[in-house]
Amino acid sequence: MTAHDGTVLGDIRIEEADFPWLRGRFTARPGFEEVRPLFAHESALLDRIDEAEEEWEAAYEAIRRAVLLVAPEHPVAEFLLHIEGDQAWFRWSEQPFEDE
Asked: Taking the mean position of all CA atoms in its chain, how far away is CA 9?
């Protein structure tokens, strides 16, 4: 995961794949502290998404504006990434997700 300026904010070591989700251990790098509150806020809203869907969407858009998910070769086109402590789970696509 990087900031839009290319600064590496953290690494995810994938430990489990359950299509379409991947799960793994997250190792934060120093720059992650700047975006950690965004992930904490999103995580809290995710726990009650049924009653706070619009608020969660806005919180997740703040994450998307702040970070990129990078595959080994290049940033991915679309992703949904959650980070809690040293755990991360995400899905990604080379193409933008279709609206559901």
From this structure: 11
CA distance 85 to 25: 9
Whether the CB-CB separation of 1 and 81 falls below 8 Å is answered with yes
pTM of the full predicted structure? 0.89
Of 49, 79, 43, 74, nearest in space to 64 by CA: 79
User: pLDDT tens track of the chain, all 100 residues?
Assistant: 999 999 999 999 999 999 999 999 999 999 999 999 999 999 999 999 999 999 999 999 999 999 999 988 888 999 999 999 999 999 999 877 765 4
Largest Cα separation within the chain, whole Å, is 38
